[in-house]
Design a protein that fits this description.
By secondary structure, this protein is α+β, with helices and mostly antiparallel strands. It contains 13 helices and 17 strands.
Protein backbone atom coordinates (compact mmCIF):
# COMPACT_ATOMS: atom_id res chain seq x y z
CA UNK A 1 0.00 0.00 0.00
CA UNK A 2 1.39 3.37 -1.01
CA UNK A 3 2.19 5.94 1.64
CA UNK A 4 1.46 9.51 0.63
CA UNK A 5 3.57 12.38 1.93
CA UNK A 6 0.85 14.83 2.86
CA UNK A 7 1.64 15.74 6.46
CA UNK A 8 2.79 19.24 7.48
CA UNK A 9 5.87 17.76 9.20
CA UNK A 10 7.35 17.05 5.77
CA UNK A 11 7.64 20.72 4.81
CA UNK A 12 11.00 22.42 5.11
CA UNK A 13 12.73 23.10 8.41
CA UNK A 14 12.30 26.85 8.87
CA UNK A 15 15.48 27.06 10.95
CA UNK A 16 17.57 25.91 7.99
CA UNK A 17 19.36 28.67 6.05
CA UNK A 18 19.27 26.70 2.78
CA UNK A 19 17.09 27.75 -0.12
CA UNK A 20 14.75 25.41 -2.02
CA UNK A 21 16.08 25.91 -5.51
CA UNK A 22 16.26 22.43 -7.12
CA UNK A 23 13.51 19.88 -7.68
CA UNK A 24 14.40 16.26 -8.45
CA UNK A 25 11.40 14.51 -10.04
CA UNK A 26 10.94 10.81 -10.76
CA UNK A 27 7.89 10.28 -12.93
CA UNK A 28 7.30 7.30 -15.26
CA UNK A 29 5.80 9.40 -18.04
CA UNK A 30 6.89 9.98 -21.61
CA UNK A 31 9.91 12.28 -22.04
CA UNK A 32 7.71 14.83 -23.79
CA UNK A 33 5.25 14.99 -20.88
CA UNK A 34 7.98 15.17 -18.24
CA UNK A 35 9.84 17.85 -20.17
CA UNK A 36 6.64 19.88 -20.55
CA UNK A 37 5.99 19.63 -16.82
CA UNK A 38 9.53 20.82 -16.06
CA UNK A 39 9.24 23.77 -18.43
CA UNK A 40 5.93 24.74 -16.82
CA UNK A 41 7.90 25.47 -13.64
CA UNK A 42 11.22 26.78 -14.97
CA UNK A 43 13.13 27.13 -18.25
CA UNK A 44 16.11 25.28 -16.71
CA UNK A 45 15.38 21.53 -16.93
CA UNK A 46 17.87 18.63 -17.08
CA UNK A 47 17.20 15.00 -18.01
CA UNK A 48 19.22 13.04 -15.45
CA UNK A 49 18.11 9.44 -15.98
CA UNK A 50 15.42 7.48 -17.82
CA UNK A 51 12.54 8.77 -15.66
CA UNK A 52 14.39 11.30 -13.47
CA UNK A 53 14.42 15.04 -14.19
CA UNK A 54 16.06 18.00 -12.48
CA UNK A 55 14.42 21.42 -12.42
CA UNK A 56 16.28 24.60 -11.43
CA UNK A 57 13.68 26.99 -10.01
CA UNK A 58 16.02 29.96 -9.51
CA UNK A 59 14.69 32.13 -12.34
CA UNK A 60 11.04 31.71 -11.21
CA UNK A 61 11.38 31.14 -7.46
CA UNK A 62 10.27 34.64 -6.47
CA UNK A 63 7.21 34.34 -8.69
CA UNK A 64 6.10 31.01 -7.23
CA UNK A 65 6.76 32.18 -3.67
CA UNK A 66 4.71 35.33 -4.18
CA UNK A 67 1.88 33.27 -5.67
CA UNK A 68 1.97 30.91 -2.69
CA UNK A 69 1.84 33.87 -0.30
CA UNK A 70 -1.15 35.28 -2.17
CA UNK A 71 -2.96 31.96 -1.74
CA UNK A 72 -1.93 31.89 1.94
CA UNK A 73 0.05 28.69 1.65
CA UNK A 74 3.69 27.67 1.71
CA UNK A 75 5.75 27.22 -1.44
CA UNK A 76 5.92 23.51 -0.63
CA UNK A 77 2.12 23.23 -0.57
CA UNK A 78 1.77 25.11 -3.87
CA UNK A 79 4.30 22.86 -5.59
CA UNK A 80 2.72 19.74 -4.08
CA UNK A 81 -0.69 20.67 -5.45
CA UNK A 82 0.75 21.39 -8.89
CA UNK A 83 2.54 18.02 -9.07
CA UNK A 84 -0.46 16.10 -7.72
CA UNK A 85 -2.73 17.56 -10.39
CA UNK A 86 -0.34 16.98 -13.30
CA UNK A 87 1.31 13.69 -12.33
CA UNK A 88 -1.30 11.98 -10.17
CA UNK A 89 -1.15 11.61 -6.41
CA UNK A 90 0.53 8.18 -6.28
CA UNK A 91 2.62 8.13 -9.45
CA UNK A 92 5.59 10.42 -8.79
CA UNK A 93 8.36 11.00 -6.30
CA UNK A 94 9.94 14.43 -5.87
CA UNK A 95 12.51 16.04 -3.59
CA UNK A 96 13.01 19.79 -3.12
CA UNK A 97 16.40 21.00 -1.92
CA UNK A 98 19.15 23.58 -2.18
CA UNK A 99 21.50 21.33 -4.20
CA UNK A 100 20.57 18.80 -6.92
CA UNK A 101 22.94 16.04 -5.69
CA UNK A 102 21.25 15.48 -2.33
CA UNK A 103 17.82 15.70 -3.95
CA UNK A 104 18.82 12.95 -6.39
CA UNK A 105 20.16 10.75 -3.58
CA UNK A 106 16.82 10.90 -1.77
CA UNK A 107 14.77 9.59 -4.70
CA UNK A 108 15.86 5.93 -4.29
CA UNK A 109 15.33 6.30 -0.52
CA UNK A 110 11.70 7.20 -1.22
CA UNK A 111 11.38 4.16 -3.50
CA UNK A 112 12.75 1.83 -0.81
CA UNK A 113 10.08 3.01 1.63
CA UNK A 114 7.39 2.91 -1.08
CA UNK A 115 6.70 6.62 -0.56
CA UNK A 116 5.10 8.83 -3.20
CA UNK A 117 4.74 12.61 -3.24
CA UNK A 118 6.96 15.59 -2.45
CA UNK A 119 9.35 16.01 0.48
CA UNK A 120 11.88 18.66 1.38
CA UNK A 121 15.51 17.70 1.76
CA UNK A 122 15.83 19.87 4.90
CA UNK A 123 12.79 18.45 6.65
CA UNK A 124 13.09 15.91 9.44
CA UNK A 125 11.79 13.30 7.00
CA UNK A 126 14.52 14.18 4.50
CA UNK A 127 17.23 13.88 7.17
CA UNK A 128 15.96 10.47 8.25
CA UNK A 129 15.71 9.14 4.70
CA UNK A 130 19.22 10.25 3.81
CA UNK A 131 20.57 8.26 6.75
CA UNK A 132 19.18 5.10 5.13
CA UNK A 133 20.90 5.69 1.78
CA UNK A 134 22.54 2.44 0.62
CA UNK A 135 25.96 2.08 -0.97
CA UNK A 136 24.39 0.63 -4.13
CA UNK A 137 22.24 3.72 -4.63
CA UNK A 138 25.19 6.00 -3.88
CA UNK A 139 27.40 4.25 -6.43
CA UNK A 140 24.63 4.30 -9.02
CA UNK A 141 24.28 8.07 -8.54
CA UNK A 142 28.08 8.43 -8.90
CA UNK A 143 27.92 6.50 -12.17
CA UNK A 144 25.22 8.81 -13.51
CA UNK A 145 27.26 11.82 -12.41
CA UNK A 146 30.29 10.54 -14.33
CA UNK A 147 28.18 9.90 -17.44
CA UNK A 148 27.00 13.52 -17.45
CA UNK A 149 30.49 14.94 -16.80
CA UNK A 150 32.28 16.23 -19.90
CA UNK A 151 35.21 14.17 -21.15
CA UNK A 152 36.34 10.73 -20.09
CA UNK A 153 38.29 11.72 -16.97
CA UNK A 154 35.46 11.22 -14.48
CA UNK A 155 34.41 7.84 -15.88
CA UNK A 156 37.99 6.54 -15.94
CA UNK A 157 38.68 7.72 -12.38
CA UNK A 158 35.43 6.18 -11.11
CA UNK A 159 36.30 2.80 -12.66
CA UNK A 160 39.77 3.00 -11.14
CA UNK A 161 38.77 4.08 -7.61
CA UNK A 162 35.43 2.35 -7.05
CA UNK A 163 36.70 -1.11 -6.18
CA UNK A 164 39.35 0.05 -3.64
CA UNK A 165 36.82 2.25 -1.84
CA UNK A 166 34.26 -0.57 -1.71
CA UNK A 167 36.83 -2.92 -0.17
CA UNK A 168 37.87 -0.26 2.35
CA UNK A 169 34.27 0.37 3.42
CA UNK A 170 33.71 -3.37 3.82
CA UNK A 171 36.79 -3.73 6.03
CA UNK A 172 35.66 -0.80 8.16
CA UNK A 173 32.21 -2.35 8.57
CA UNK A 174 30.40 0.66 7.09
CA UNK A 175 27.13 -0.79 5.79
CA UNK A 176 25.76 2.60 4.65
CA UNK A 177 27.37 5.92 3.68
CA UNK A 178 25.85 7.51 6.79
CA UNK A 179 28.14 5.42 9.02
CA UNK A 180 31.05 7.38 7.57
CA UNK A 181 29.31 10.76 7.48
CA UNK A 182 31.90 12.48 9.69
CA UNK A 183 34.78 11.39 7.46
CA UNK A 184 36.36 14.63 6.12
CA UNK A 185 36.21 14.88 2.31
CA UNK A 186 39.96 15.64 2.29
CA UNK A 187 40.67 12.11 3.52
CA UNK A 188 38.48 10.60 0.79
CA UNK A 189 40.32 12.71 -1.80
CA UNK A 190 43.71 11.64 -0.49
CA UNK A 191 42.91 7.92 -0.51
CA UNK A 192 40.45 7.57 -3.40
CA UNK A 193 40.96 10.60 -5.63
CA UNK A 194 39.42 14.03 -6.21
CA UNK A 195 36.33 12.75 -8.03
CA UNK A 196 35.01 10.61 -5.16
CA UNK A 197 36.16 13.20 -2.65
CA UNK A 198 34.06 15.88 -4.33
CA UNK A 199 30.99 13.64 -4.47
CA UNK A 200 31.46 12.72 -0.81
CA UNK A 201 31.56 16.41 0.04
CA UNK A 202 28.35 17.03 -1.96
CA UNK A 203 26.62 14.17 -0.17
CA UNK A 204 26.97 15.65 3.30
CA UNK A 205 28.15 19.27 2.94
CA UNK A 206 27.00 20.69 -0.41
CA UNK A 207 27.79 24.36 -1.13
CA UNK A 208 24.82 26.71 -1.00
CA UNK A 209 24.99 29.28 -3.81
CA UNK A 210 22.77 32.35 -3.43
CA UNK A 211 19.34 32.04 -4.99
CA UNK A 212 19.43 34.71 -7.67
CA UNK A 213 17.54 34.90 -10.96
CA UNK A 214 19.63 33.55 -13.84
CA UNK A 215 22.43 32.55 -11.48
CA UNK A 216 24.86 29.91 -12.61
CA UNK A 217 24.44 26.19 -12.03
CA UNK A 218 25.78 24.92 -8.70
CA UNK A 219 29.44 24.31 -8.22
CA UNK A 220 30.68 20.74 -8.75
CA UNK A 221 27.64 19.62 -10.71
CA UNK A 222 27.49 18.80 -14.47
CA UNK A 223 24.34 20.72 -15.30
CA UNK A 224 23.09 20.31 -18.89
CA UNK A 225 19.86 22.12 -19.69
CA UNK A 226 17.31 20.65 -22.06
CA UNK A 227 16.69 22.78 -25.13
CA UNK A 228 13.18 24.22 -25.22
CA UNK A 229 13.19 24.28 -29.00
CA UNK A 230 14.38 26.86 -31.47
CA UNK A 231 14.39 30.38 -30.03
CA UNK A 232 11.63 32.57 -31.42
CA UNK A 233 13.28 35.37 -33.34
CA UNK A 234 12.16 38.50 -35.21
CA UNK A 235 14.62 40.25 -37.51
CA UNK A 236 14.37 43.83 -38.71
CA UNK A 237 16.41 45.95 -41.11
CA UNK A 238 15.70 49.66 -40.84
CA UNK A 239 15.05 51.77 -43.93
CA UNK A 240 17.37 54.41 -42.49
CA UNK A 241 19.78 54.35 -39.52
CA UNK A 242 18.09 55.47 -36.30
CA UNK A 243 19.01 56.15 -32.71
CA UNK A 244 16.09 58.12 -31.27
CA UNK A 245 14.21 56.04 -28.73
CA UNK A 246 10.82 57.22 -30.04
CA UNK A 247 11.64 55.66 -33.42
CA UNK A 248 13.15 52.50 -31.95
CA UNK A 249 10.19 52.06 -29.60
CA UNK A 250 7.71 52.03 -32.48
CA UNK A 251 9.58 49.31 -34.35
CA UNK A 252 10.18 47.26 -31.21
CA UNK A 253 6.50 47.39 -30.29
CA UNK A 254 5.62 45.94 -33.71
CA UNK A 255 8.20 43.17 -33.24
CA UNK A 256 6.90 42.28 -29.79
CA UNK A 257 3.34 42.15 -31.08
CA UNK A 258 4.52 39.85 -33.88
CA UNK A 259 5.72 37.10 -31.50
CA UNK A 260 2.23 35.85 -30.46
CA UNK A 261 1.32 35.58 -34.15
CA UNK A 262 4.05 33.03 -34.86
CA UNK A 263 2.86 29.45 -35.24
CA UNK A 264 5.53 28.19 -32.82
CA UNK A 265 4.35 30.56 -30.07
CA UNK A 266 2.03 28.54 -27.82
CA UNK A 267 -0.95 29.96 -25.98
CA UNK A 268 -0.16 30.89 -22.40
CA UNK A 269 3.63 31.07 -22.85
CA UNK A 270 5.35 33.60 -20.65
CA UNK A 271 8.77 35.02 -21.28
CA UNK A 272 11.60 35.42 -18.79
CA UNK A 273 14.41 36.73 -20.97
CA UNK A 274 14.95 38.42 -24.34
CA UNK A 275 18.10 39.10 -26.31
CA UNK A 276 18.24 42.18 -28.53
CA UNK A 277 21.26 41.93 -30.84
CA UNK A 278 21.82 45.36 -32.36
CA UNK A 279 23.93 45.99 -35.48
CA UNK A 280 25.39 49.50 -35.53
CA UNK A 281 26.30 51.69 -38.49
CA UNK A 282 29.95 50.59 -38.28
CA UNK A 283 28.76 46.91 -38.35
CA UNK A 284 29.61 46.48 -34.68
CA UNK A 285 27.23 44.11 -32.85
CA UNK A 286 25.87 45.15 -29.47
CA UNK A 287 24.06 42.36 -27.57
CA UNK A 288 21.49 43.57 -25.04
CA UNK A 289 20.03 41.12 -22.50
CA UNK A 290 16.53 41.85 -21.18
CA UNK A 291 15.46 40.02 -18.02
CA UNK A 292 12.03 39.95 -16.38
CA UNK A 293 11.66 39.42 -12.64
CA UNK A 294 8.42 37.48 -13.14
CA UNK A 295 7.07 35.50 -16.11
CA UNK A 296 5.63 38.08 -18.49
CA UNK A 297 2.74 37.64 -20.93
CA UNK A 298 3.11 39.40 -24.27
CA UNK A 299 -0.52 38.59 -25.06
CA UNK A 300 -1.83 40.41 -21.96
CA UNK A 301 0.30 43.46 -22.79
CA UNK A 302 -0.91 43.65 -26.39
CA UNK A 303 -0.77 46.05 -28.22
CA UNK A 304 1.14 48.62 -26.14
CA UNK A 305 3.80 46.22 -24.77
CA UNK A 306 4.64 48.78 -22.12
CA UNK A 307 6.35 46.31 -19.76
CA UNK A 308 8.74 44.82 -22.31
CA UNK A 309 9.59 48.22 -23.83
CA UNK A 310 10.47 49.66 -20.43
CA UNK A 311 12.79 46.75 -19.66
CA UNK A 312 14.38 47.05 -23.11
CA UNK A 313 15.06 50.74 -22.53
CA UNK A 314 16.62 50.04 -19.11
CA UNK A 315 18.77 47.26 -20.58
CA UNK A 316 19.86 49.48 -23.47
CA UNK A 317 21.01 52.23 -21.12
CA UNK A 318 23.00 49.68 -19.12
CA UNK A 319 24.56 48.22 -22.26
CA UNK A 320 25.56 51.69 -23.47
CA UNK A 321 27.27 52.41 -20.16
CA UNK A 322 29.18 49.15 -20.37
CA UNK A 323 30.20 49.98 -23.95
CA UNK A 324 31.19 53.48 -22.78
CA UNK A 325 28.94 55.16 -25.31
CA UNK A 326 27.69 58.58 -24.29
CA UNK A 327 23.93 58.07 -24.37
CA UNK A 328 22.61 58.29 -27.96
CA UNK A 329 24.92 61.14 -29.01
CA UNK A 330 27.92 58.96 -29.79
CA UNK A 331 28.71 59.25 -33.54
CA UNK A 332 28.95 55.44 -33.81
CA UNK A 333 25.56 54.80 -32.28
CA UNK A 334 23.34 54.55 -35.34
CA UNK A 335 21.29 51.34 -35.50
CA UNK A 336 20.81 49.75 -38.92
CA UNK A 337 19.31 46.33 -38.00
CA UNK A 338 18.66 43.94 -35.14
CA UNK A 339 17.46 40.53 -34.00
CA UNK A 340 14.99 40.25 -31.14
CA UNK A 341 14.99 36.73 -29.68
CA UNK A 342 13.10 35.01 -26.84
CA UNK A 343 15.78 33.08 -24.93
CA UNK A 344 13.88 31.91 -21.82
CA UNK A 345 10.18 31.17 -21.39
CA UNK A 346 7.70 29.13 -19.39
CA UNK A 347 5.35 26.71 -21.16
CA UNK A 348 2.42 25.91 -18.85
CA UNK A 349 0.20 22.98 -19.91
CA UNK A 350 -3.28 24.14 -21.04
CA UNK A 351 -4.97 22.72 -17.94
CA UNK A 352 -2.55 24.64 -15.71
CA UNK A 353 -3.16 28.10 -17.14
CA UNK A 354 -5.11 28.92 -13.97
CA UNK A 355 -1.74 29.01 -12.17
CA UNK A 356 -1.00 32.17 -14.13
CA UNK A 357 -4.43 33.74 -13.56
CA UNK A 358 -5.16 33.71 -17.29
CA UNK A 359 -8.17 35.87 -18.04
CA UNK A 360 -8.25 37.29 -14.52
CA UNK A 361 -7.32 40.68 -13.18
CA UNK A 362 -6.05 40.74 -9.62
CA UNK A 363 -4.14 43.14 -7.42
CA UNK A 364 -1.42 40.51 -7.09
CA UNK A 365 -1.02 40.24 -10.87
CA UNK A 366 -0.93 44.03 -11.20
CA UNK A 367 1.79 44.23 -8.56
CA UNK A 368 3.93 41.69 -10.39
CA UNK A 369 3.43 43.56 -13.66
CA UNK A 370 4.44 46.78 -11.94
CA UNK A 371 7.63 45.18 -10.63
CA UNK A 372 8.42 43.95 -14.15
CA UNK A 373 8.23 47.57 -15.33
CA UNK A 374 10.69 48.96 -12.77
CA UNK A 375 14.49 49.12 -13.09
CA UNK A 376 14.86 47.73 -9.56
CA UNK A 377 12.80 45.16 -7.64
CA UNK A 378 10.24 46.26 -5.09
CA UNK A 379 11.05 45.78 -1.43
CA UNK A 380 8.37 43.81 0.36
CA UNK A 381 8.02 43.33 4.10
CA UNK A 382 6.26 40.60 6.02
CA UNK A 383 5.26 39.98 9.64
CA UNK A 384 7.40 37.99 12.03
CA UNK A 385 6.35 36.26 15.22
CA UNK A 386 8.06 38.67 17.59
CA UNK A 387 6.71 40.51 20.60
CA UNK A 388 8.94 43.59 20.14
CA UNK A 389 7.33 45.97 17.61
CA UNK A 390 10.66 47.03 16.11
CA UNK A 391 11.45 43.38 15.30
CA UNK A 392 7.97 42.29 14.22
CA UNK A 393 8.59 42.81 10.50
CA UNK A 394 11.41 42.02 8.08
CA UNK A 395 12.18 42.27 4.42
CA UNK A 396 10.40 39.51 2.50
CA UNK A 397 12.72 36.78 1.28
CA UNK A 398 14.81 36.70 4.44
CA UNK A 399 14.93 33.25 5.99
CA UNK A 400 13.60 34.62 9.28
CA UNK A 401 10.12 34.96 7.80
CA UNK A 402 7.78 32.00 8.22
CA UNK A 403 5.20 31.09 5.56
CA UNK A 404 1.73 32.59 5.94
CA UNK A 405 -0.37 30.99 8.66
CA UNK A 406 -3.98 31.35 9.81
CA UNK A 407 -4.48 34.15 12.29
CA UNK A 408 -5.62 31.81 15.07
CA UNK A 409 -2.25 30.03 15.06
CA UNK A 410 -0.48 32.87 16.83
CA UNK A 411 -1.59 36.04 18.54
CA UNK A 412 1.66 37.78 17.61
CA UNK A 413 0.66 37.91 13.94
CA UNK A 414 -2.67 39.50 14.83
CA UNK A 415 -0.91 41.98 17.09
CA UNK A 416 1.58 42.83 14.34
CA UNK A 417 -1.21 43.83 11.96
CA UNK A 418 -2.24 46.62 14.35
CA UNK A 419 1.24 48.13 14.39
CA UNK A 420 2.31 51.02 12.13
CA UNK A 421 3.16 50.57 8.48
CA UNK A 422 6.20 52.86 8.53
CA UNK A 423 8.92 52.57 11.16
CA UNK A 424 11.62 55.20 11.72
CA UNK A 425 15.19 54.14 11.04
CA UNK A 426 16.15 56.23 14.07
CA UNK A 427 13.71 57.19 16.81
CA UNK A 428 13.37 60.84 17.80
CA UNK A 429 11.93 62.38 20.98
CA UNK A 430 8.42 63.78 21.25
CA UNK A 431 8.93 67.05 23.15
CA UNK A 432 5.32 68.18 23.61
CA UNK A 433 3.17 65.13 24.35
CA UNK A 434 0.72 67.21 26.38
CA UNK A 435 -0.40 69.14 23.29
CA UNK A 436 -1.51 65.98 21.44
CA UNK A 437 -5.14 65.73 20.49
CA UNK A 438 -5.53 62.02 21.11
CA UNK A 439 -3.73 59.28 23.05
CA UNK A 440 -4.56 55.59 22.83
CA UNK A 441 -2.71 52.90 24.73
CA UNK A 442 -1.79 49.95 22.50
CA UNK A 443 0.51 47.51 24.32
CA UNK A 444 3.29 46.97 26.85
CA UNK A 445 6.37 44.90 26.00
CA UNK A 446 9.74 44.03 27.44
CA UNK A 447 12.86 44.88 25.45
CA UNK A 448 15.49 42.28 24.52
CA UNK A 449 18.01 43.54 27.04
CA UNK A 450 20.29 40.54 26.40
CA UNK A 451 20.64 41.55 22.72
CA UNK A 452 20.58 45.34 23.02
CA UNK A 453 22.37 46.22 26.29
CA UNK A 454 21.47 49.54 27.80
CA UNK A 455 17.90 49.54 26.46
CA UNK A 456 15.00 50.16 28.81
CA UNK A 457 13.49 46.87 29.92
CA UNK A 458 9.78 47.87 29.76
CA UNK A 459 8.06 50.04 27.18
CA UNK A 460 4.50 51.28 26.76
CA UNK A 461 3.29 51.99 23.22
CA UNK A 462 0.63 54.53 22.21
CA UNK A 463 -1.12 55.85 19.15
CA UNK A 464 -0.72 59.63 19.32
CA UNK A 465 -2.45 62.11 17.03
CA UNK A 466 -0.10 65.05 16.75
CA UNK A 467 -0.16 67.79 14.08
CA UNK A 468 -2.58 65.77 11.93
CA UNK A 469 -0.30 62.72 12.03
CA UNK A 470 -1.01 59.44 13.77
CA UNK A 471 2.28 58.47 15.40
CA UNK A 472 3.54 55.30 17.07
CA UNK A 473 5.10 56.51 20.33
CA UNK A 474 6.94 54.58 23.02
CA UNK A 475 7.08 55.69 26.64
CA UNK A 476 10.15 54.38 28.39
CA UNK A 477 10.36 53.67 32.11
CA UNK A 478 12.31 56.91 32.62
CA UNK A 479 9.34 58.87 31.28
CA UNK A 480 10.81 59.82 27.88
CA UNK A 481 8.61 59.66 24.79
CA UNK A 482 10.12 58.44 21.50
CA UNK A 483 8.46 58.49 18.07
CA UNK A 484 9.13 55.11 16.47
CA UNK A 485 6.77 55.07 13.49
CA UNK A 486 3.91 56.60 11.54
CA UNK A 487 0.62 55.00 10.61
CA UNK A 488 -0.03 55.02 6.86
Amino acid sequence: MHKLLSFPDFTRNLQSPQQDRFLALQWPASPAEAKQLGHSLSPEVMHWAEDVWLIDLASCQVYWQSQAQTRRMSFHQLLLGHLDEICGVSSYRAVLGDHPWQALLLLPCLAQQNYFGLINRHSSMGDNLLQGLSWDDWWQACTRYAEHSPGEGSRVELQKRRRPMQLAMRRLGCSTPHHLKKMPPEQIRRRFGAFLGDLWSLTWQPPSPPLLPNSAAPMLFPWQSEVQGADLCVRRTLDAPARDWDVLETYLRDDLNHFPLLSSFKKGERILALEWKIVLYNLQELPVSILFRHPHSLQHDYPQQRTALLQISFALQKALQQQRLSEFEDPCFWIVSWELRITQKLQPPPRQLTLFNEGESSAWEELLNLENQLPAPLEAYALRDDWVPEDSFARAGQETIAPPQPEHVTSLNSLGRSRPLYMQKKAYPLFRPGQSLLWKFRERTMEKWWIRPGQTAVRDYYEVLCDQQLLWVARESAGHFLVLGVYG
